[in-house]
Amino acid sequence: MTTATAKTVEKVHRSSQRHWVGDGFPVRSVFGYNDLGRELSPFLLMDYAGPHTFAPAERPRGVGSHPHKGFETVSIVYSGEVAHRDSSGAGGTIGPGDVQWMTAGKGLVHEEFHSPEFTRKGGELDMVQLWVNLRARDKQAAPGYQSLLANQIPKVEVRGNGGTVRVIAGEYAGVRGPARTFTPMNVWDMALNPGGMAQLEFNGGDTTALFVRSGTVTVNGATASASDLVILSRGGTQLNLEPVSAANLLLLNGEPINEPVSAYGPFVMNSEEEIRQAYSDFRQGRMGSL
């Protein structure tokens, strides 16, 4: 019988200061493909937008038409509303608790703006966008769009009144999330109660990281607070979470993609030649248009 061992905390990484993406998303860069993306494979990049309160407006704020190729974007909304449309013909609006899982695959063009209703009323925007890498053989997949509404995402109680886990992707306590993924991974929203404890176990060799949206939590002996990213060793299998205060966390865990990564701007491929080809495809209109 294999003896379970605790994962080691490799580092507690602090998010950047806020900057604007377009005119609708004041974001902290939690990590990017040029700093921690390879270390955190299959996860490439994560931005945390908000919480930020917008006044009512007449014109939607956001990010206009731009391309992507070779990976997936995962947008998780906690408050506010975001409207999306892309050159594959997909689109929709996501609000509190909803998730948009978009596969750029072989390339598409999309835009993201505050929804008309949120623009008109104003209010708080609070959301995460995560980039997930694809294996070389999947980078030519057809673009796809998964709209995962809050009522489709199962919420599981943590034993001992420890809190709740929303299973977006993967599996927790025998309950599977609705997201379809190209490689094995767990993406969980966690809300933990002070005084409780969550004991988790993962496959040895997997990437594991924990982003603290709010509150303070002890992770295998290391303390992390709002905007911190806790990066765990790939060795070991166990993770013990002890909230010092009520804490909202986003847990990322997945099988690494052991392939070269070449990334520039909105494209993530396996070589510089493929990046040049992606730019050529975009300029030639092969990714479509809005």
Give a description of the structure.
The protein has 290 residues and is mainly beta. Helices cover 6% and strands 51% of the residues. The protein contains two helices and 26 strands. The strands form six sheets. The chain has a seven-stranded antiparallel beta sheet, with no helix packed on it. Strands 2-3-4-11-6-9-12 form a seven-stranded antiparallel beta sheet. A four-stranded antiparallel beta sheet has the order 5-10-7-8. A hairpin with a 4-residue loop joins β7 (82-86) and β8 (91-94). The longest helix has 12 residues, at 272-283. The radius of gyration is 19 Å and the shape is globular.
Taken as a percent bin, the fraction of beta residues is: over 45%
Percent helix: under 10%
Read across the widest sheet, the strand sequence of neighbours is 1-22-19-24-17-14-13
Rg result: 19 Å
| Sequence stretches where pLDDT stays below 50 over 5 or more residues | none
Q: What is the tally of helical segments? A: 2
Give the SSE string.
EEEEEEEEEEHEEEEEEEEEEEEEEEEH
Which outline best applies? globular
Largest sheet: 7 strands, antiparallel
How many strand segments?
26
Structural class given helices, strands, pairing? Answer: mainly beta
Query: What's the mean pLDDT score?
Result: 96
Distance between the termini: 56 Å
